[in-house]
Amino acid sequence: MTSQFIKGLQTAHASQQPAPEPVAPRFIATRRGVLAGIGGLTLAFALPVPGLRAQEGGGIKVPPATPNAFIRIGTDDTVTILSKHLEMGQGPYTGLATLIAEELDADWGQMRAMGAPADDALYANLAFGAQGTGGSTAIANSYMQMRKAGAAARAMLVAAAAADWGVPEAEITVSKGVIAHAGSGKTSGFGAFAEKAAALPVPQDPPVKDPADFVLIGTDRPRLDTVAKSSGTAQFTMDVYREGMLTVVVAHPPKFGAKLTGFDDTAALKVPGVEMVREIPSGIAVYARNTYAALKGRAALSADWDETGAETRSSRQLFETFASAAAKGGDTVEKEGEVEEALTSAAEVLEAEILFPFLAHAPMEPLDAVIEVKGDRAEMWYGCQFPTFDRPTAAKVLGLPVENVSINVLLAGGSFGRRAQGSAHIAAEAAAVAKAAGRDGAFKLVWTREDDIKGGYYRPLTVHRLRAGLDASGKIVGWENVVANQSIMAGTPMEAMMQNGMDPTSFEGSSGLPYDLGAKRIGWAQMQSPVPVLWWRSVGHTHTAFAVETFLDEVLAKAGKDPVAGRLELLKPEATRERAVIEKVAEIADWKGPKQGDKGYGIAWAKSFGSYVAEIVEVEDRGGFPRVTRVWCAVDCGVAVNPNIITAQMEGGIGYALSAALYSAISLGEGGAVEQSNFDDYQMLRIHEMPKVEVAIIASTEDPTGVGEPGVPALAPALANAWRALTGTPVRQLPFPRGLS
Amino acid sequence: MTAFKLNGKDVTLDVDPETPLLWVLRDELQLTGTKFGCGVAQCGACTVMLDGMPRRSCVTPIGTIEGSEVTTIEGLEGREAEAVRAAWVAIDVPQCGWCQSGQVMAATALLSQVSAPSDEDIDNAMAGNVCRCATYVRIRQAIHDAAKTLEG
Q1: Of A232, A238, A656, the CB nearest to B101
Q2: Which candidate from A293, A446, A687 shows the least CB-CB separation from B140?
Q3: Three-class secondary structure of residue A349 per DSSP
Q4: pLDDT value at position A185?
Q5: Tell me: the pLDDT tens digits for B96-142?
Q6: A232 contacts in B (CB within 8 Å)?
Q7: Distance of residue B81 Cα from the nearest chain A Cα, in angstroms
Q8: Model's pTM, two decimal places?
Q9: What is the rounded distance in angstroms from the CA atom of residue A552 to the CA atom of residue B119?
Q10: What is the structure's pLDDT at A1?
């Protein structure tokens, strides 16, 4: 039944190295060959998805009318789901499989998952209207679409069984992967009816379960990728080896925006194993028979660069420029009342300027991509996060029609936003490498850790300027927050999503606060620099939650309010979910106040990507540097599809945020070159620095929202608040400077 | 020519003796479970066992391991390894998974030397292995769980 494979998969399977192998829960022995031997049902249908609003234009977003394919049922009873979302650690393979298995009434043990290939028409993210993973939307946008897919598959299997057994469909039951008819005593697995079911019409709007009847959703399902990832068999991009493949590393400009004017590759070409050196738009590509030769060859290059137009300012100079722009007020994002008047008449005015550095995402698997060109076709294998941009970009670079470029989406060893590029620069570079080779062949583009750390696409360097006014009774009467940073969307295909020249990802979380703050003004000053910037796990919230929640904490302290009670008092009545997570985290942390003996406690919360997360941090002063001992977290992400994965994402988000708060800064030195290069000077949190974490998930019947990013924003401000409570010193710059207390 | 024992089998290779063991394993032998994370012995993703001790293969020139025994994640066997893998699976330690081969190697080495490690033992043994997904809470738990299994 391979003819029923969708087109992209046929391409993958025709080639010698099937790209994304499905990952299975407890079936290592059957991993290989599962696809080759698979038969049976491919479901192809399009369904309207009620309840999901398009980002632009509003209204109901209906998936394209072309057939859609998410499920394959093998004659061996395996159910393989094609995940339209990149598995980069946050669990979409397992989550999407859970949604399908729930409605299919499958047994968890028969479920498998693999990445869906690049195909906007089939695999659009319904929150974006195009194929891509990001914004913590995997479960949120798929919730009804995948359940409908599972329900349709179930209905088709039931219809096939009913016809074969000569019994009414209504008398057939399905449970844990077994189709049964009580009256006749007949039972069957899915596999036996897969082919017959595939020939039946697809129900366009099959009914889905009442949540009260959920068997899998809401329970801890083992991740489908754990076994492979615990035994070294999971296949990532760098693990792909094609016949005759060359490994390619690229020498990039030493400063952002510098241009290559000339190079000498004589010494590089003498390195045994180096096959060729080519100039490509992003730098100088060295092609070799193995990685070590490629690296040696690159090290032997000499090159001249023109720095006209390059960023030659240091981070210190950027901070000065950005701070002075913030002080001028920027463009107005949100305005309520007259904040100047309110501040002028206030009994007391507090001010703060807070500095946030560039941050590299530093996923453990550095950026990489494999591309193979044969005649007028190109095939790629990598952890592709935005197929919608990558595929046409690669096609354009290669001068091929888009349909001649296929992308097999593999597991990614982390991303945190780094692989989600509006510029599609990795796809473009891989395609440029293949094109510059001037011949057919396979090429593996590899970035080293140094390439990654020095390579830009950072969380934007940001300055926040805040002012708040209190009246004589301690009530907040005015609040101003101005953000100065580069836009992430400007200059990319996403610029079209900016409204009135505003990039919401630059200041999200500073506006629309559910607090009663009196007169308000939120401003944004858009800054310019050749340093490429990108979304970094939780995007604008990485800095806005810190600015808002640390400054508010100081204002509350000035008014003599407890951090928890003070926040609850300020929340508007309609902010019920915000209130619930704050109350819950205070309950599980047994909140008694911000300083207890030699420990400081701080709280912060943020709503990001539709989810509400509050965190309390316990901190000790170890020689002037914070030691975080415990973190409590309450999360409301709607229906908790897999509580264990939600908890893991909160733990991971907390660790990721703590790493940044304590250690991370990418800095440009005098002249503009990046000062960091690897994990020795861009430090990562290690196991002995990881606090104990306790997570409480709020029970909810709301549609599910994201968990990949929302664990991040509250951590750093909660830590800073705890630190100020303990030491009296506010934190005005991240990462924590040494010797604060 | 460099000759060594790899996962119990004799291997002889003719490669530049300066080539790090990591790239030999991956590019020449296609044992891809050992991962590249930093190239400067800062992250532990490339950890293998060299004569029974954890070693960063990214900074180990192949020319220096003549006659040694190398074990990669693909060849990792024994009671401790089985207990570690089972514990990893039982509580779903991995997220992105890239560092986990190295974590499993380091945890197995620890349990081979210390049967009931304390939190401090775990900190000391595992601090060289970075996990960017910060699965540290579960790594710690899984090591304790594996130790309990071995005890029983």
Answers
A1: A232
A2: A687
A3: strand
A4: 98
A5: 999 999 999 999 999 999 999 999 999 999 999 999 999 999 999 99
A6: 32-34, 72-74, 101, 104
A7: 10
A8: 0.93
A9: 37
A10: 26
